[in-house]
Amino acid sequence: MDYINRLDNFDGSDFGEIVVKAQLYEEAFAVFKKFNLNVQAVNVLLYNIQSIKRVVEFAFFVEEDAVWSLLGNAQHEAGMVDDAIELFMRLKPA
Q1: How far apart are the C-alpha atoms of 41 and 35, rounded to whole Å?
Q2: Record's Gene Ontology CC terms (predicted)?
Q3: Helix, strand, coil: what percent of the chain each, to 5?
Q4: Would you say the C-alpha torsion 5, 1, 66, 87 has a positive or negative sign?
Q5: What's the pTM?
Q6: Number of DSSP helices (H) and strands (E) in the chain, helices first
Q7: CA angle 36, 7, 19 (to 5 degrees)
Q8: Domain map of the chain by residue range?
């Protein structure tokens, strides 16, 4: 995946979606992460790679409310209600 880090002159969002359609999920995550498209990166982790654990790690890395919100919803859907409530309590009021 080093080639993704070396590429610069492309639209990260469009390229990431193409990579997802090609079922290259780790590469898609790397593209979205590189271009700070954090919501798209989380969606790849949740719906394609299916790893809530990695989303938790990523959420602490980016510290973004939209990412925390997606994580809380995923935890709630997975039956991790206590964790989801704790996350929603850390979100800043709108």
Answers
A1: 10
A2: chloroplast; clathrin complex; Golgi apparatus; plasma membrane; plasmodesma
A3: 75, 0, 25
A4: negative
A5: 0.89
A6: 7, 0
A7: 70
A8: 2-90
